[in-house]
């Protein structure tokens, strides 16, 4: 069974201002430098892209400022005018040039986009965009178009199912796979556990949940799952290659568009 992971996942994939600074006072600087500094500090960066100084822009800026002010240890922010060359270039980098403005883009310390909020944003949106380390890594790999195997374990030492290891030798998949370890006892990752539909009691040995771009849960695999079985699930999900004309992709799309009969 497939499902879309309900996380603040942005498909595609900054200049710091102090909380309390008004829109008119916010001076633009080197956004790349700001992002780099935020990443080094382990902070999430919220970039407000805008086209004009409208009330909607003012409202979004204020919402982001207030949230960042209360969570300064985890967050920083920046603003960018898409009317300026630098702002336009940054908007292109995050693939938001055609997005409704203003828009806030949440960027994790590892470079993953964890949220896109056009036109308006609430504190709850910004809080939800601050994701756990393993979820952050999964989102980064998905945005790099990788098949993400979340290898679950009951301890700090991850165990990879033999079928997944064997699949790494398959030329069709080896360069498209990413393995991410997750300790099911880590309460900080409870949200991700819920999203990939795994109960800690299920994990009694090598166990992996496979997520495919943009956030499709392909399935769960244990120590008895063969490489062939995993490959078949990937094919069925239409994730076997990047060819839009692939017969497996077409079949998967048709399956998703067909109403379920009860």
Automatic annotation (TrEMBL):
InterPro entries, per the entry: Thioredoxin-like_sf
Keywords: Signal
Signal sequence segment: 1-19
Protein's recorded name: Thioredoxin domain-containing protein
Record organism: Bremerella alba
């Amino acid at each position: 069974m497939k499902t879309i992971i309900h996380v603040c996942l942005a498909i595609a994939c900054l200049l710091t201002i102090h909380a309390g600074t008004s829109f008119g006072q916010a001076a633009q600087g080197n956004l790349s430098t700001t992002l780099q500094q935020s990443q080094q500090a382990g902070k999430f960066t919220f970039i407000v892209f805008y086209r004009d100084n409208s009330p909607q822009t003012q409202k979004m800026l204020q919402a982001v400022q207030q949230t960042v002010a209360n969570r300064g240890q985890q967050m920083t922010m920046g603003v960018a005018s898409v009317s300026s060359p630098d702002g336009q270039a940054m908007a292109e980098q995050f693939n938001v040039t055609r997005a409704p403005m203003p828009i806030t883009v949440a960027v994790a310390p590892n470079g993953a986009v964890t949220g896109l909020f056009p036109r308006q944003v609430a504190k709850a949106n910004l809080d939800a965009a601050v994701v756990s380390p393993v979820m952050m890594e999964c989102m980064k790999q998905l945005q790099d178009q990788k098949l993400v195997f979340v290898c679950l374990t009951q301890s700090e030492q991850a165990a990879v199912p033999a079928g997944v290891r064997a699949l790494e030798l398959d030329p069709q998949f080896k360069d498209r796979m990413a393995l991410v370890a997750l300790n099911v006892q880590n309460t900080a990752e409870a949200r991700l556990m819920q999203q990939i539909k795994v109960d800690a009691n299920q994990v009694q040995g090598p166990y992996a949940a496979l997520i495919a771009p943009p956030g499709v849960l392909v399935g769960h695999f244990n120590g008895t799952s063969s490489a062939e079985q995993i490959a078949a699930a990937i094919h069925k999900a239409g994730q076997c290659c990047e060819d839009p004309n692939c017969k497996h992709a077409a079949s998967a799309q048709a399956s998703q568009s067909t109403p379920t009969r009860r």
